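Fold Annotation — chain and its backbone

Encoding — discrete vocabulary of local shapes
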Amino acid sequence: QVQLVESGGGLVQAGGSLRLSCAASGSIADVGGWYRQAPGKQREWVATITSSGSRAYADSVRGRFTIYRGNAENTLHLQMSSLKPEDTAVYYCYSGIAPMSWGQGTQVTVSS
């Protein structure tokens, strides 16, 4: 399994933007993406991208978030715009399906 490290989280006001990055020790698998977990809630899927460029988004973020692969094969990004307080969570990137590799997460806090 690859090792994943997320970065780019932080504190932002509602309506602001952040870009999350995920760096892998090896190549990101054909399927990769992002989940998030808010305090007291279960981890929820956010977005997925395939090696062919197909993208899928949760209804709650569609139109505001964009997932894309970096120029290097070992990076994933999540551009988040029009952020809302309900987007506050720890964001985790993942690579692969079975097995699935996870990063340690990066905190995103959106203030109202």
